[in-house]
């Protein structure tokens, strides 16, 4: 594939990542503007909108580590973003793979912005079901945000892409 063709087809994936970042930051701005830390609004019997600050990583990993984790996770996010852009430049025509990478890129950048601006990631989506009570306090899955959802969709996409790739090679 010619270099100019590769660069042109990179833009839709960067656009998807940018859309995720914009939606993520917009929703977090709303939460920061209308909710105080710890506020919660019940929306359904299994979903609340909350305001939680996560200084750690997924599931609040290293949240109470003393502050160094802010820059550690920021560095990981920036390094991941650079690597993902490089991967997107190398494989823009692999649609599922590129879609997955773009979702992860958007999520990583959204959470890096939070860490740099606030020192924590703003989480606000709180799902809870009784069957989760054995795993999570009160059955509440850890609160998350649009960036986290993008990363999760991207991870599922990467797994699916690999499964399909292995099946095609047989």
How many separate structural domains?
1
Main β-sheet, spatial strand arrangement: 1-2-3
Q: Which class best fits the helix and strand makeup?
A: mainly alpha
Count of individual beta strands:
3
In what range is the share of β-strand residues? 5-15%
Put simply, the count of helices is: 4
- Uncertain parts: 1-7
Cα(first) to Cα(last) distance is 26 Å
Q: Which H/E pattern describes the elements?
A: HEEHHEH
Assign a percent range to the helix content.
55-70%
Q: Which of globular, elongated, flat, extended, rod-shaped describes the shape?
A: globular
Describe this structure in words.
The chain has about 170 residues and is mainly alpha-helical. It has one domain (about 5-170). The chain is about 60% helix and about 10% strand. It has four helices and three strands, in the order H-E-E-H-H-E-H. It has helices at about 5-35, 70-90, 95-120, 145-170, and strands spanning about 40, 45-55, 120-125. Helix 1 (about 5-35) crosses helix 3 and helix 2 (about 70-90) packs antiparallel against helix 3 (about 95-120). The chain is globular and about 45 Å long.
Brief account:
By secondary structure, the chain is mostly helical. The chain contains 4 helices and 3 strands. A 3-stranded antiparallel β-sheet has the order 1-2-3.
């Amino acid at each position: 594939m010619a270099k100019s063709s590769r660069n042109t087809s990179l833009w839709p994936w960067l656009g998807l990542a940018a859309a995720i970042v914009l939606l993520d930051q917009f929703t977090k701005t709303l939460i920061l503007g209308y909710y105080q830390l710890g506020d919660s609004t019940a929306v359904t019997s299994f979903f609340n909108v909350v305001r939680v600050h996560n200084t750690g990583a997924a599931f609040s990993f290293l949240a109470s580590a003393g502050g160094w984790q802010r820059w550690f996770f920021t560095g990981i996010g920036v390094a991941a973003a650079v690597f993902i852009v490089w991967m997107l430049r190398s494989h823009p025509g692999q649609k599922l793979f590129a879609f997955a990478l773009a979702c992860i890129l958007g999520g990583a950048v959204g959470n890096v912005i939070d860490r740099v601006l606030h020192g924590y990631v703003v989480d606000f989506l709180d799902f809870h079901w009784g069957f989760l009570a054995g795993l999570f306090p009160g059955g509440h899955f850890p609160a998350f945000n649009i960036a986290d959802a993008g990363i999760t969709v991207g991870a599922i996409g990467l797994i699916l892409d690999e499964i399909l790739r292995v099946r095609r090679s047989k």
